[in-house]
Design goal:
CATH class of the largest domain in chain B: Alpha Beta
Radius of gyration of chain B: 24 Å
Largest sheet of chain A: 2 strands, antiparallel
Shape of chain B: elongated
Protein name (chain B): Sugar ABC transporter ATP-binding protein
Mean pLDDT of chain A: 92
InterPro entries (chain B): AAA+_ATPase, ABC_transporter-like_ATP-bd, ABC_transporter-like_CS, ABC_transpr_MalK-like, ABC_transpr_MalK/UgpC-like, Mo/tungstate-bd_C_term_dom, NA-bd_OB-fold, OB_MalK-like
Strand order of the largest sheet of chain B: 6-7-8-3-9-10
Keywords (chain B): ATP-binding, Nucleotide-binding, Transport
Subcellular location (chain B): Cell inner membrane
Oligomer: heterodimer
Number of helices of chain B: 8
Number of strands of chain B: 21
Low-confidence stretches of chain A: none
Distance between the termini of chain A: 37 Å
Membrane topology (chain B): Peripheral membrane protein
Low-confidence stretches of chain B: 355-360
Distance between the termini of chain B: 40 Å
Order of helices and strands of chain B: EEEHEEEHHHEHEHEEHHEEEEEEEEEEE
CATH topology of the largest domain in chain B: Rossmann fold
Structural class of chain A: mainly alpha
């Protein structure tokens, strides 16, 4: 009886439910996060039993002596700016279109969402083929259109590679924001749309004064998630260009990985990761607080 | 102010027809209530006047101008929705001025109109609040304010009081009616609540299954319903109906149990006809001696009156008694039907046979 009484205690039940996940989070998320901060103060090749304490040297080095860090930083910023503008805009346009009573609407929604469920590394492999200047899809299409002489080296050119990789990212990620926007658009109060039409609003007016304000929460969520995923952008770039040519598509997350796992400078790799972590937290913490306030207000 | 003329209007969704050729004439400044049970097509009809639904056939004209193909914004109408439909991100003042701003009216005029409407509706202290900070009644008033500032030809109300509690509903009912008297604008008002219809309307249109059953003033509908549907729909508590065969020689109605219930005198040519006899609860009187013998089933005192459900020859009747009487369940209660207050309807078609007892 006593055992049953303990098990029926709501606090015990809560810990029984949360406990296993908490252990996993602590071991695989919290500990590595703290460990990486610790490691960033050392010089270590990942194999030696002794780590040499160097204080803030790794940070000073990446900021002052590592030109690739700044390239990666700039690329990550460009990637983030593009990610918060293009995929959400395309996603919103698709959601508005797919909210109309058109034939095959559900199938189209599935088609547009499909790339989201493909592994980024598979998307990278696919797009690498399509970008092949000799027998890739895009080159073939341009040749068919008589533009064969102008087929660029999509992934081989330092000027084009980042944007070519980003196009693949848009193709993969747009379905995600589309689904979130679609859910938001479906929640728009129909009476409000009708009231606006009677008040004299045209299509743009209805969008501006009814649809868009109703999508404010969705829009914030989409933008914050886009920022977070851009800051940690790794796999699709790794699969498409590996950071090249000549580091022109290098990203912070990829550079941290390269420093640690390929150059075996774990201290510097960790320092880059900590910078990335700080930037991410600067975005995530206000978002979490906003979310919490919103939930409290809803209650 | 404007007239609204609805001529042979039909509405179909694919093969399904929901409005079957409706004709209604609404005069300048009239308060017309479209009333009927759920699914009768009243809201659809209102939305067709507003331009929110296409008209499958027939015409709707506002001030003699056919508006079938005009956008809602070009019909010079304002609509108050059941759920208020206030823009949540805008303040009360912004909600009220929105239509005028879209119409590029100058700011001074907008301010003046919003202030005037706010004064009429007692909204002045709320002008800077957002809809979420208002009570249901306040939101309803803002929705009306939004309609008033536009000074439209026609106000359309779509069950505007349904989301309010009973007390507020009565208060808002009076407010809307006094507003109409003050502004004199033509109103088309949809409700499923016949009390709302009776208390507010100059003219009631009773709709059922996409057809007009009767159009008339509240008292015309109450006193002379053209068919059994209107008779049963208008009035609360509802009219009582007894189905049976007329026995004119006995001034009675032979009901299913074989008993003959005294209903008063009717023309002899109706003898043997199967009818439904209707009598309103307030036209049933408790008598001291004689009358019909009933057995009391349910007693519902409301304070001002008492509703008594009684069994007479196997049929249930509701009587509305205004004087205080010691009545209990199981009592035997002798009743009579007031002379000349009965209604006869053909049992098959439901159409009225005689306007009141003894009158052809």
């Amino acid at each position: 009886m006593a055992k049953r009484a303990i098990l029926s205690d709501i606090r015990i039940q809560t810990w029984l439910l949360l406990g296993p996940a908490l252990v996993i989070y602590v071991v695989f998320a919290v500990f590595p996060m703290l460990d990486v901060i610790w490691l960033s103060a050392f010089k270590w090749n990942g194999l030696d039993p002794v780590k040499e304490y160097v204080g803030a040297t790794n940070y000073v080095d990446i900021f002052t002596k590592d030109p690739v860090f700044w390239v990666a930083f700039k690329n990550t910023v460009i990637w983030t700016i593009l990610s918060v503008s293009i995929p959400p805009m395309v996603g919103l346009a698709l959601a508005l279109g797919l909210n109309q009573p058109i034939f095959g609407r559900n199938s189209l929604r599935a088609v547009y969402y499909l790339p989201v469920i493909i592994a980024p590394i598979a998307v990278a492999t696919m797009w690498r083929w399509m970008y092949n200047p000799f027998f890739g899809l895009f080159g073939q299409i341009m040749t068919l259109l008589g533009l064969g002489a102008y087929v660029p080296d999509w992934l081989g050119s330092r000027d084009a590679a980042l944007y070519s990789a980003f196009a693949a990212h848009v193709w993969q990620s747009v379905g995600f924001s589309m689904v979130l926007f679609l859910a938001g658009v479906q929640e728009v109060n129909k009476s409000l749309v009708e009231a606006a039409r009677i008040d004299g609003a045209g299509r743009w007016g209805v969008f501006r004064y009814v649809t868009l304000p109703a999508l404010r929460t969705t829009l914030t969520i989409v933008l914050v998630l886009a920022i977070i995923s851009s800051l940690k952008a790794f796999d699709i770039v790794y699969g498409l260009t590996g950071g090249g040519p000549a580091q022109s598509t290098q990203m912070l997350a990829l550079w941290a990985f390269t420093q640690s796992m390929q150059i075996f400078d774990f201290g510097r790799g960790s320092a880059i990761s900590v910078v990335l972590l700080a930037v991410t937290l600067a975005v995530v913490i206000p978002y979490m607080r906003w979310n919490q306030k919103r939930e409290e207000a809803a209650q | 102010m404007a007239s609204v003329t609805i001529s042979s209007v039909r509405k179909t969704y694919g093969a399904v027809s929901v409005i079957h050729g409706v004709d209604i004439d609404i005069r300048h400044g009239e308060f017309v209530v479209l009333v009927g049970p759920s699914g009768c097509g009243k809201s659809t009809l209102l939305r067709m006047i507003a331009g929110l639904e296409n008209i499958s056939a027939g015409t709707i004209a506002i001030d003699d101008k056919v508006v079938n193909h005009l956008e809602p914004k070009d019909r010079d109408i304002a609509m108050v929705f059941q759920n208020y439909a206030l823009y949540p991100q805008m303040t009360v003042a912004q909600n009220m001025s929105f239509a005028l701003e879209l119409a590029k009216v100058d700011k001074a005029t907008i301010r003046q109109k919003v202030d005037a409407a706010a004064a009429i509706l007692g909204l002045e202290p709320l002008l800077d609040r957002k809809p979420a900070q208002l009570s249901g009644g306040q939101r309803q008033r803002v929705a009306m304010g939004r309609a008033i500032v536009r000074n439209p030809k026609v106000f359309l109300f779509d069950e505007p009081l349904s989301n309010l509690d009973a007390k507020l509903r009565v208060a808002m009912r009076a407010e809307i009616k006094s507003l109409h008297q003050r502004l004199g604008t033509t109103v088309v008002y949809v409700t499923h609540d016949q009390i709302e219809a009776m208390t507010m309307a100059d003219k009631i249109v009773v709709l059922n299954a996409g057809r007009v059953e009767q159009i008339g003033t509240p008292l015309e509908l109450y006193d002379r319903p053209v068919n059994r549907f209107v008779a049963g729909f208008i009035g609360s508590p509802a009219m009582n109906f007894l189905r049976g065969t007329l026995q004119v020689d006995q001034a009675g109605l032979k009901v299913a149990s074989g008993s003959v219930i005294a209903i008063g005198a009717y023309p002899v040519e109706l003898t043997g006809r199967t009818v439904e006899f209707g009598i309103r609860p307030e036209h049933i009187q408790v008598t001291e001696t004689g009358g019909l013998d009933t057995l009391v089933d349910v007693v519902e005192p409301t304070g001002s009156e008492t509703h008594v459900v009684a069994d007479v020859a196997g049929e249930k009747l509701v009587a509305l008694i205004r004087r205080r009487m010691p009545i209990s369940v199981g009592d035997r209660l002798p009743i009579v039907f007031e002379e000349g207050q009965g209604h006869l309807f053909d049992a098959e078609s439901g159409q009225r046979l005689i306007l009141s007892s003894g009158q052809a």
